[in-house]
Write a structure and sequence with these properties.
Length: 280
């Protein structure tokens, strides 16, 4: 695996590969890698692409300074994991390399960014889109892979590509789960054994909600889920939402919807904030 810290060195290498006829599959990450990230790299390799993984903890998408400070940084372990799946290229830039000039870009994703994560993390999606757009400018991938655990992010990245008229195909990949059902996340490293066990309530609620959606109304289902998710005094529910998978807007009638529907959860387990979602 080749490692690059500067834009110019990465561009020189990727340009040579393009001239040889190779296509680029890009996996942007903030590090603290796990099997979910590795599955994205494997998917790119299955698609016969040069796999490029970036590790960059983006300061512009954290609305809480403590969250940025505490975000896990495990670069040596990350490199070992990337080498285990024979990732082709690692891009590991500094903040100055990504943002050499003051940020002047502002993205407006309308109603996509005002609900759920957007409502609880002001400015998050503008910061996320800023760095993803910048990374797309640098890497110029043909395909980019994102996990469905961050489904709202995935939807907004697709909108970003459309707004910017970028020739990139965005591929959403299924959420990988730990034994028991907890969605794999870099933040799971902060969970105590007891908190990890308690966090099972998130996926259990989602999968049970999928069953109950066949017989309950949207309001009944939402009331049941909220009650189920608020039984543990050590956790704090931020939201449970039933939403249209394309518009991300809340659904009030499960039977009347003509598009796919997903249930979304954000919950703090101790000091660790976890999100998850599932198609109903």
């Amino acid at each position: 695996m080749l490692k690059f810290e500067t834009v110019i060195d990465l561009n020189d290498h990727l340009e040579k590969l393009r001239k040889e006829g190779f296509k680029i599959g890009f996996i942007p990450t903030m590090g603290a890698l796990h099997k979910g990230h590795l599955s994205l790299i494997n998917r790119a390799k299955e698609d016969n692409l040069i796999s490029v993984c970036s590790i960059f903890v983006n300061p512009t998408q954290f609305n809480n300074p403590d969250d940025l400070k505490n975000y896990p940084r495990t670069i040596e372990a990350d490199i070992t994991l990337l080498e285990s799946v024979t990732c082709d290229v690692l891009f590991f830039p500094s903040v100055r390399e990504i943002y050499p000039h003051p940020i002047k870009t502002f993205f407006n994703f309308g109603r996509l960014e005002t609900v759920m994560e957007g409502a609880f993390r002001k400015g998050h999606f503008n910061g996320m889109a800023t760095v993803v757009n910048r990374l797309f400018e640098i890497v110029k991938p043909d395909f980019a892979y994102f996990g469905e655990k961050d489904f709202q992010q995935l939807t907004i990245v697709k909108m970003l590509v459309k707004m910017q008229s970028l020739p990139i195909k965005i591929i959403g990949c299924e959420t990988l789960r730990e034994e028991g059902g907890v969605a794999m996340s870099s933040r799971n490293i902060h969970l105590s054994p007891k908190e990890r066990e308690d966090a099972l309530i998130i996926s259990q609620t989602l999968f049970k909600a999928k069953e109950l959606a066949k017989t309950m109304t949207a309001q009944e289902l939402k009331s049941w889920a909220i009650n189920n998710l608020t039984t543990n005094p050590s956790s704090e529910l931020e939201y449970f939402e039933i939403a249209d998978a394309e518009t991300l807007q809340p659904i009030s009638n499960l039977k009347a919807s003509t598009s796919k529907i997903r249930a979304f959860i954000a919950l703090k387990m101790g000091k660790t904030r976890l999100i998850d979602n599932l198609e109903l």
